[in-house]
Specification:
Number of domains: 2
Oligomer: single chain
Helix content: 25-40%
CATH topology of the largest domain: Rossmann fold
CATH superfamily of the largest domain: ANL, N-terminal domain
Largest sheet: 11 strands, mixed
Strand content: 15-25%
Number of strands: 21
């Protein structure tokens, strides 16, 4: 709950300062956020009418202006009369995107509205795609709304514990420094950490006193372990919430983080670089799906809907990306929808995911450093010729890099992989094994970084 003084500060920051930033960047983030604050209380009929209207508009856009969809949707009758008819549409998989990047693009959208991006590689299958800058405002709006559910607000000091920015050019580094400064974020990368680095982060946290910490689950978990070992009983009441994302938050990680920072302070978010999907609220009873912006389905192997309560595959349609339509996109995770008649005590009426599984990874533990998943995901997600990867560690000084070769794989690709792994991991043995495929267990939990060593050290 915000008091009057805090509310006044937030209102001024959002309605004056952040709106000015939106104006400079040609964005509508605050307008979208205000709309989403209202739409989160829609009844089911209102929400489904909104989704169907936006879905049909996206389908016409795709069929008329995307060569890929002109072909794949040629046999479908439009407009759809109900959301259930989406089951008759084709599924979009990562290999479809990799093989049809330019033909999926809609020709009527100017290039300046497109932003070439890539998946974080967190499923072990890196993929390039295009973002629609206009649609990104809706996506960012859901991010800020999720933060408000956790008790964090725009304008408050925020500690960000995500990946490193070594893959950005100098202009992007400067741009993000300016953005972080204006948004009162301070960056504490956790791609590679040791006690010396974590101690600097701890002292910086005490100095800046952020109200929230955002970051990768594994990074915040390692930070919590460090604090418990070196500063037991530290007073961290100024931290109102810790928001984890980009990785599956495991039960023992949540337990440890809350032991150090306070019970009930962890809020897990589910999403990817492609789109923001669902977030925990104060009830901590499932993940509210951002259903005004995305249409999420839980389906069987044939793409047919499954009943609430069953743990099955997830398909996502981004209702805001008109430039590069993601429709029935197979994100690579499995999840379970909660029954629609089970209302959440927080008052938000959006549908909820009860459980999400899929992207599981360990921390690689070496003698002088610990490497979290973002390091490998960033390093490997943009390498030509790497279709899929997996890292396996069975000894403190040894790593195995399993690679599925893509069409662009060359001798230079192998040389780069050896060089990059050497730079990242130091003086250890790294062996590259080539595979026809990376096996996915029946559970659907993709293990793209596996370390039997980590359990002995964490």
């Amino acid at each position: 709950m915000k008091d009057g003084k805090t509310m006044k500060f937030h209102d001024i920051y959002q309605n004056v300062f952040f709106r000015f930033l939106d104006l400079l960047r040609g964005r509508k983030t605050i307008s979208r956020l205000k709309y989403l604050r209202q739409s989160q209380h829609w009844d089911r009929d209102h929400l489904e009418r909104w989704q169907l209207e936006r879905l049909n508009a996206l389908l016409y856009q795709a069929r008329n202006y995307s060569p890929y969809y002109a072909n794949t949707l040629s046999g479908n009758v439009l407009p759809l009369k109900s959301l259930s008819e989406i089951q008759d549409l084709p599924i979009l998989r990562k290999e479809n995107i990799r093989n049809n990047l330019e033909t999926i693009r809609c020709a009527n959208i100017p290039g300046k509205r497109l932003e070439l991006s890539r998946t974080g590689g967190s499923t072990g299958e890196p993929t390039r795609y295009y973002l629609d800058k206009k649609g990104m405002d809706w996506n960012r709006g859901t991010v800020y709304r999720s933060a408000e559910w956790a008790g964090a607000f725009l304008g408050e000091s925020t500690m960000q514990m995500t990946g490193s920015h070594y893959d950005l050019d100098e202009f992007d580094k400067l741009k993000w420094k300016v953005i972080f400064f204006l948004q009162r974020y301070f960056d504490c990368p956790v791609a590679m950490v040791n006690d010396e680095i974590l101690r600097k982060y701890y002292l910086k946290m005490l100095q800046r006193k952020p109200t929230s910490i955002w970051g990768y689950a594994s990074g915040i978990f390692l930070f919590s372990l460090f604090i418990e070992r070196n500063y037991p009983g530290a007073n961290l009441d100024f931290i109102r919430c810790l928001i984890t994302s980009s990785e599956t938050l495991l039960p023992h990680q949540r337990e440890k983080i809350e032991h150090v920072f306070g019970e009930g302070k962890v809020y897990d978010h589910y999403g990817s670089r492609e789109m923001y999907l669902a977030s925990e609220c104060k009830a901590h009873d499932g993940y509210h799906i951002h259903s005004e912006v995305i249409l999420l389905e839980v389906v069987d192997e044939d793409g047919r809907w499954k009943k609430p309560g069953e743990l099955v595959g997830i398909l996502v349609t981004d209702l805001s990306n008109e430039a590069f339509p993601f429709m029935r996109y197979e994100i690579g995770d499995v999840g379970m929808i909660l029954p629609t008649d089970s209302a959440c005590s927080c008052g938000v009426t959006l549908p909820r995911l009860g459980k999400v599984e899929g992207r599981i990874a360990d921390v690689v533990t070496l003698r002088d450093r610990m490497l979290t998943v973002p390091n490998f995901a960033t390093m490997l997600s943009d390498v030509p010729g790497v279709a899929a990867y997996q890292i396996v560690q069975d000894a403190l000084d040894e790593l195995v890099l399993n690679i599925v070769k893509g069409a662009d794989f060359t001798d230079k690709t192998e040389s780069y992989l050896k060089y990059a792994m050497g730079q990242l991991c130091g003086d250890i043995s790294v062996r590259i094994d080539y595979k026809d495929e990376i096996e996915v267990p029946k559970s659907g939990k993709r293990r793209y970084v596996i370390s039997s060593v980590a359990k002995s050290y964490l």
